[in-house]
Structure formats: C-alpha cells, structure tokens
Design goal:
- Keywords: Signal.
- The chain is built from three helices and twelve strands; from the N terminus they run αββααββββββββββ.
- By secondary structure, the chain is an alpha+beta fold.
- It has one domain (about 30-200).
- A seven-stranded antiparallel beta sheet has the order 1-7-8-9-10-11-12, with no helix packed on it. A five-stranded antiparallel beta sheet has the order 2-3-4-5-6, with no helix packed on it.
- A hairpin with a 2-residue loop joins strand 9 and strand 10 (about 160-170).
- It starts with a helix and ends with a strand.
- Residues about 1-25 have low confidence and may be disordered.
C-alpha cells in the first residue's frame, strides 16, 4: 500500500512537472528595447554592415564606439520549430529616441539581404506563441509623451506583414486620447475604426 501511494504521488508529480514545462514552452517571449538581451549572441558581420548602411553615417556617428559591432546586440529566437532568426537591436541608446529603438529580425541561415521584419521605433517586441502560415506572429508596442502604438505582424511567404494596428494620439484641445484601429481581413482589405476621446 505504501509503495502504491508513493508511486501514485510520484506519477502526479511527474505529470504536474510536464504540464508546467508545456505551459512555459507555450508562453510569449517579450523583449524590451531598453534592456540587454538575456542570452546575447554575436551579431554576424553581414547584418552589422547592412544595418550601418541602412541607418546612415549621420545616425551611427552619434554613437562614439570603436567598432560598428559594438552598436548592436542580437539574440536567437525561434520563428517555428525549424527556423531560427536573429532579433537585433541597438546595444546603446544613442540609436534610440524617446526610449523607443529600432529593431530587426533576420533569418539565421543564408545571407541577410534584407530583414524579415523591422521597425524604426519599438518599446517592446513580443514573439507570440500563436502562428500563421507556419511562423509565429510578432507584436510590437511603442510609446512616447503624445501617442502609443501597438502592431501585430504575421508571416506572408517571405516576410512579415502588419495585420493589426492600434494607435492612440493625445488630443491637447479636448484633453483626451483618440484611438484608431486598423485590421487586415483575410481578403487583404483594411478596415478602420476610430474611437474619439475614450480616456480623460
């Protein structure tokens, strides 16, 4: 009887542990543009070259660093079970504005001729557990003193496209925020819905 009860408790503990592991693996991954990556990896030289060229010398010259590599940091993320990618962001705030930074996603395999996804101004980047067309969806949020923006992106053949956008803008005259939502339907059409002065 003692052995049976002990075995039963052990089995319950194993099942509970597996359940917790499963739930954890399904969680969204959130990255803050102001915080260093928890598991940084070396940024490949072709990506550094692409980003320094895309940003331009005027922008990159504001960062007083000895090497271009020192301006960026990367972390590997899983877009699906077989596709890894580099999530890249500035390693220093000199490339950011109002605590929002540019961020990019490059496929880990092959030459990075262009990013799979990019944003010029992001506060938080979330790799969602939900997928579409075999790849995980992406969510980005940016915020400053006068407006907030939330966007959701999904995979479409060879890059990510924006399928949802919610923008809040502060109306100084009415002293409230007006919001505009845009959703892309399955047929590709965009539907807009505007909400006026929803928050005093």
């Amino acid at each position: 009887m003692y052995i049976t009860m002990k075995s039963r408790h052990y089995s319950i503990a194993v099942v509970f542990a597996l359940l917790l592991t499963s739930i954890a693996s399904l969680a969204d991954e959130v990255f803050n543009s102001e915080e260093s990556f928890k598991s940084p990896v070396s940024v490949p030289a072709p990506i550094v070259a692409h980003l320094t060229k895309a940003l331009g010398s005027e922008k990159t010259s504001t960062c007083q660093v000895s090497r271009p590599h020192d301006m960026f940091e990367a972390q590997l993320i899983d877009l699906n079970k077989s596709t890894k990618a580099f999530l890249v962001k500035p390693a220093r705030m000199c490339l950011c504005e109002a605590n929002n930074c540019p961020m990019w996603v490059f496929k880990a395999k092959g030459s990075p001729s262009k990013p799979l996804w990019s944003s010029p101004s992001t506060k938080t980047f979330t790799l969602l557990d939900k997928t579409l067309n075999g790849y995980k969806k992406l969510r980005e949020v940016s915020a400053d003193a006068t407006n907030d923006r939330e966007s959701i992106w999904s995979w479409n053949k060879d890059s990510y496209v924006e399928i949802y956008k919610h923008v809040w803008i502060w109306d100084t005259e009415k002293r409230c925020r007006s919001g505009e939502e845009t959703t892309q339907l399955m047929d590709g059409q965009m539907v807009e819905r505007t909400r006026q002065c929803t928050q005093e």
